Amino acid sequence: MKPSFVTPVLKKVAKKAGVKILVEPKYQYAGQIIFPDGRRHYFKGAFIDLNSVGAAEIARDKAYASFFMKAMGYSTIEGREFFTPRWCKVIKSKNGLLEACKYAKKIGYPVVVKPNDLSQGIGVCKVYSEKELRLAASAIPARCRAFLVQRVVEGSDYRVVVLDGEIISAYRRLPLCVIGDGKSSILFLLKHKQAWFEKSGRDTVINPADPRVASKLKRQKLSLASIPAREEHVVLLDNCNLSTGGDAVDVTAIMHNDYKKLAANIARDMGLRLCGVDIMTEGDIAKPCKDYHVLEVNAAPGLDHYADLGKAQQKVVEDLYLRVLLALKKLR
Predict the structure, then answer these.
(1) 3-state SS string for 45-114
(2) What distance in Å separates the CA atoms of residue 205 and residue 98, rounded to the nearest whole number?
């Protein structure tokens, strides 16, 4: 297990907050925040005691989160949850793969298949047939009990980070992509991108053998051996997660107040003081909001890749966690 990105950040800002940090030394993934009055709070990875357990658990379950957001009037993506084959046997449910295939046929392919309670783009697939849906469902990690089948929506994908009603950062997320130079293969360009990640300190690991990459390339009549033309952009995954090699463009300064209010209201209504709100819109993020879909909410938004964008973004992240510690300090 690699150390959490959050651990060194909390240690760095702890003195400013007037607290001490005790970190489990073997993995450096979990720790204790010790306040002057003797109170103690905990963190594990990006999860910190600021959010209530109930709200954080609802956010982690994509189906529940979507249900409650839709009930409150927010625009969510049409979809349904289904149990994995293993879990269907455990609970003796018929709401499994067969029903998922029927539902996908009803709303029309392509559809998105994703684990119900995982993050970082793990297991997220855009599928075009029942055969591909079955393959995607079979590839979902065994620890998952359910998966979602959702209608495909188009637009730009944004992550907005909210702390106590204030927008801390916002960035557009772009899928894993390479840009051709007219002489190098896609595989070579991927390896070059991985080397650049490592040189810049970004810990993302690109997996060229990911079957989703092969599938995406095949639909473009390409392979890892193909040589894109100079300046040709080749997208390799459908999901925009930075953890799978995607890129980020900071839009905090240009984001329209409509979207700021939207993200802040969602975080408030979902009971989350610290929240990452994922929004997809066909409109311009700098202009008034006309249409949108809430993709997900995250009670422990990962900000390591955002911090990698530059010193200004790193300062934003450090200030965020300083404010989190100060907010915890005020709790009684």
Answers:
(1) CCEECCCCHHHHHHHHCHHHHHHHHHHCCCCECCEEEEECHHHHHHHCCCCCHHHHHHHHHHHCCCEEEE
(2) 34
Cβ atoms < 10 Å from Cβ of 254: 11
Residue in the block written with tokens 């940090």:
21
CA 266 to CA 166: how far, in whole Å?
A: 12
**Residues 19-56: pLDDT tens digits?**
999 999 999 999 999 999 999 999 999 999 999 999 99
Structure tokens at 82: 């289904």
Site of tokens 């357990």: 53
Which domains can be identified in the chain, with CATH numbers?
78-152 (3.30.1490.20), 176-237 (no CATH)
CB 158 within 8 A of CB 278: yes
Token digits for 80? 């349904």
Beta strands, E only, 244-332: 247-250, 274-281, 293-298
How many angstroms separate the CA atoms of 189 and 186, rounded? 5
Residue 147: exposed, middle, or buried by beta-carbon count in 10 A (0-12, 13-18, 19+)?
buried
Among candidates 300, 186, 313, which has minimal Cα distance to 247? 313
Residue 222 amino acid letter = L
Return d(Cα 42, Cα 32) in angstroms, integer.
5
Q: Are 238 and 212 in contact (CB under 8 A)?
A: yes
Q: Is the pTM of this model over 0.90?
A: yes
Backbone angles phi, psi at 294, to 5 degrees: -80, 120
Q: Is 129 helix (H, G, I), strand (E, B) or coil?
A: coil
Cα-flanking dihedrals φ and ψ of residue 199, to 5°?
-65, -35
Confidence of residue 199 (pLDDT cuts 50, 70, 90): confident
How far is Cα 50 from Cα 227, in angstroms, rounded to an integer?
Answer: 49
